[in-house]
Design a protein that fits this description.
Layout: E1 23-29, E2 32-33, E3 38-39, H1 44-61, E4 69-76, H2 82-92, E5 102-107, E6 117-124
Length: 134
């Protein structure tokens, strides 16, 4: 893997950040079974369920869950799968939220593998207050 180059960018022509952010980015999640690295069988619905399960596990490893998600992007191989994927999204990930995060669903033209969708999401990890055990 190539090394990641990090560079802080700031300018006097824009306000400085108002505080430290704890943003988590999860990208390129497919409906792959982590035990064998293969797409799960069953088509778009099963792939969407598995991709959301995978993202849930990554969020858990970061000390978060889907309630921390502020934005989700789903790139579809076939725009006709929109309703199916949207319904899976509602059932599998967002059922416990009072308010849904921002979501983009769009058609993607280029894939390296034969998959039906690719998910990315952005989450924000809240800071714990000193002396609070929550």
């Amino acid at each position: 893997m190539s090394s990641l180059i990090r560079k802080v960018i700031s300018t006097a022509k824009a306000p400085a950040a108002i505080g430290p952010y704890r943003t988590i980015y999860i990208s390129g999640q497919l409906g792959m079974d982590p035990s064998n690295g293969q797409l799960v069988p069953g088509g778009v619905a099963e792939e969407a369920k598995q991709a959301l399960t995978n993202m849930g596990e990554i969020l858990k490893a970061a000390g978060c869950d889907f309630t921390n998600v502020v934005k989700t992007t789903v790139l579809l191989a076939d725009i006709n799968d929109f309703n199916t994927v949207n319904e899976i999204y509602k059932q599998e990930a967002m059922w416990r939220l009072k308010q849904w995060p921002s979501k983009d669903l769009s058609k993607q033209h280029h894939y390296n593998l034969t998959m039906n969708e690719v998910f990315t999401l952005t989450a924000y990890k809240k800071r714990r207050k000193i002396g609070v055990n929550k």
